[in-house]
Amino acid sequence: MKQLSIILILAIAFTANAQQPNKKAYQYNINLNEVNNDRLQVELIVPKFKGNIKTFHMPKIVPGTYSIYDFGRFASNMKAYDKKGRELEVTHPTTNTWRIYKAKKLKKLTYAVDDSWDDEGENHVFEPGGTNIEVGKNFVLNNHGFFGYFDGEQGRPFFLNVKKPGNFFGATSMKKIVSNASQDLLYSKDYNALTDEPIMYADMDYRTIKVGEADVLIGVYSPNKIITSEYLAELLEPLLQAQREYLGGTLPVDRYAFIIYLTDGFSMSGGYGALEHNYSSFYCLPEAEPEQIAQTIVDVSAHEFFHIVTPLNIHSEEIHNFNYIEPEMSRHLWMYEGVTEYSAGHVQVKHGLMSTEKFLEWVADKVRGAEEYKDDLPFTKMSGGCLHEHKDQYLNVYQKGALIGLCLDVKLRILSDGDYGIQNLMRDLSKTYGKDQPFKDEELFDKITELTYPEIGVFLDRYIAGKEPLPLQSLLAELGVEYAPKKMVKEITLGGLEKSIGVDYDSGEFFIADPNMLDEFGQTIGFKANDQLRSWNGQEMNFQNVNEVLSGFIFSAKAGDDFSVTVLRGGKEERLTTKVIEASVEKEHVFNIAENPTTRQEKLRISWIGR
User: Fold this and answer.
1) Distance from C-alpha of 220 to C-alpha of 229, rounded to nearest angstrom
2) Please, what is the angle between helix 400-415 and helix 340-350, to 10°?
3) Which among 145, 147, 141, 202 has a CA at the least distance from the CA of 174?
4) 310: which of 22, 35, 201, 408 is 20 to 30 A away, CA to CA?
């Protein structure tokens, strides 16, 4: 997925040997003060090896990304040395693999790493899983992008020694053994832990808040100082406290870090978002005014934070024993991503952070989104093939996947007369498995059925492993929620701009192409054909920020607010003013609460989303 005291340095009782690099550990060294040709030099001091040939890997893929990225392509000039500084032979048979010969003599490796954020190739790394080098400004260390491992040696401890500018802070959930103005020494118990704890170094704003017994760091890099850690703490604390209650009053972690990079430019991948980790989440989002980005931050943070349940405490063997070079995908993305996405919305309505009407519109948006994907492709099959044959269907985890979570939750409540839902199920699964006990992919459905009802086993087989459409409408009807395929509704709009606007790609200017496509609100503004849009409600609007400006308006505008837009008309700028009104629009897939629900419907609905 999101900031005033020192980072999450807990009182961790390391042994004397564990507090400093030792003969059994890897030690990585980097210097953020020294960057050459936009590349960071990496040095690895290695333990003594047996055998004459050792294979060194950079990851092909990392957990949570579900895409092949080949991080080895960003590493270059790999050199191996013995303790006397003599070079050893190194070959490079594949993109992510190097072989070191006479490895018994190996003392250290050195190589350079280019960052992924400004890569101009075709296979763009999604920024929250990538790396950034901005000299003197910002370094994003998603550790899998800088640091590799030797075959069969992933279980060794790793130490990371970072030299840094004096004004830089390192936001991470990683354990800091030494931290001063010029250096951090960090520790991970093995390679999985190292790649699971990203670090962002910058002159940033940060603070720590308490959520139950957990220390939660909020670190934000906002290049124009628009978003502060204080603002984010006030925004996120009610959500995090609600999530703690949603999970039963306690969190399964003792520390957590929201690491947030806000950009005032483009992302090379063409997208924004976040990547989850067991004790943190890293965000790359557009920098915008607080009211414009607030709901986005809440929604994304809610999703990423809930990953502390799954896959942290509930995961398959494929995730537990992750293969960075030849990965096998679990069949249960419906749970890892789908149930997590559902919970991120459900917690907000159940704990009063979102209205019932807004939540039902959230559900409708998921239905509309799911229509873009194959409905007859079993979700388990899609999950298993998400890297290759079903790659184009992966994003349905956030659409139909969320609806699967909703339907399972409602089905459980119907069967239990409101006493048991998906929150209870996830707690029971956490107790059954837990952080160190993975499940077998093929056994999860049987375990869920054993913990709940035979009817749930049938549901899993028909709607997740099978091809049948989800029974969303009939299930919600039992809770007194009505459905209409199409309905006229009143809502805040962009005035029909999305249908009437044109773009001059040479100049990057937006203009009104067809005023007849404007809705009621658009008509009150007074647009004319060929008006060039210069600002929207006081904000300059251009090709770079149009999405943030318009989405921010939709999130924050209310009926009756003053509104203005500046246009270039006939070579002169004109300012058009009006009041924001709700326009009549036809919406597909509309849900609303029945006016006269039965006693049972009312009881089940209250158990589902509260009053």
Assistant:
1) 6
2) 60
3) 141
4) 201
Q: Tokens standing for 62?
A: 């990392």
Of 94, 85, 112, the closest CA to residue 56 belongs to 94
Cα separation of 53 and 454, whole Å? 54
pLDDT in tens, 329-347: 999 999 999 999 999 999 9
CATH architecture of 26-260: Sandwich (2.60)
Give kind and range of the element (H or E) at residue 450: helix 444-451
The H or E element containing residue 507 is none
Contacts (Cβ under 8 Å, ≥6 apart) of 428? 451
Average pLDDT over every residue of 530-538 = 93
**Amino acid residing at 62:** V
Q: Is the pTM of this model over 0.70?
A: yes
Helix, strand or coil, per DSSP, at residue 22 = coil
Closest-CA residue to 303 (of 337, 260, 351, 263): 337
Other Cβ atoms closer than 10 A to 453: 17
Plot region of 470 (φ>0 → left; ψ -120 to 50 → alpha; else → beta): beta
Instruction: Pick the closest to residue 31 from 229, 148, 168, 190 (CA basis).
Output: 168
Phi, psi of 121 (to 5 degrees): -75, -175
Give tens-digit pLDDT for 239-290: 999 999 999 999 889 999 999 999 988 788 878 899 999 999 999 999 988 8
CA distance 500 to 448: 50
In the chain, what are the domain boundaries? Answer: 26-260, 309-480+601-609, 490-586
- Report whether 511 contacts 504 (CB < 8 A): yes
What secondary structure letter does DSSP report for 73? G
Instruction: Give the number of other Cβ atoms within 10 Å of residue 51's Cβ.
Output: 8
Residue 293 to residues 19, 296, 477: CA-CA distances in angstroms? Answer: 41, 5, 34
The CATH-assigned architecture of domain 309-480+601-609 is Orthogonal Bundle (1.10)
Backbone φ/ψ region at 457: left (φ over 0), alpha (ψ -120 to 50), beta: alpha
CB 580 within 8 A of CB 521: yes
172: helix, coil or strand? coil
Phi first, then psi: give them for residue 396, nearest 5 degrees.
Answer: -65, -15
Q: Are 181 and 237 in contact (CB under 8 A)?
A: no
Burial degree of 411 (CB within 10 A; 0-12, 13-18, 19+):
buried
Q: Are 100 and 78 contacting, i.e. CB atoms less than 8 angstroms apart?
A: no
Running DSSP on this structure, what letter comes out for residue 439? B
Write out the H or E segment, with its range, that includes residue 28.
Answer: strand 26-36
Structure tokens at 514: 């067809």
Dihedral pair phi/psi, residue 368, rounded to 5°: -65, -40
CB 183 within 8 A of CB 163: yes
Asked if 199 contacts 141 with a C-beta cutoff of 8 angstroms, the reply is yes
Length in residues, the chain: 611
206-224 confidence digits (pLDDT tens): 999 999 999 999 999 999 9
Residues 201, 169: contact at Cβ < 8 Å? yes
Q: Which of 489, 497, 490 is nearest to 563 (CA)?
A: 497
**CATH class entry, domain 490-586:** mainly beta
Distance CA 105, CA 51 (A): 10
Q: Are 309-480+601-609 and 490-586 the same fold in CATH? A: no
Instruction: Tell me what pLDDT residue 1 has.
Output: 32
Q: Is the peptide bond before 21 cis (omega within 30 degrees of 0)?
A: no
Sign of CA dihedral 486, 487, 493, 495: positive
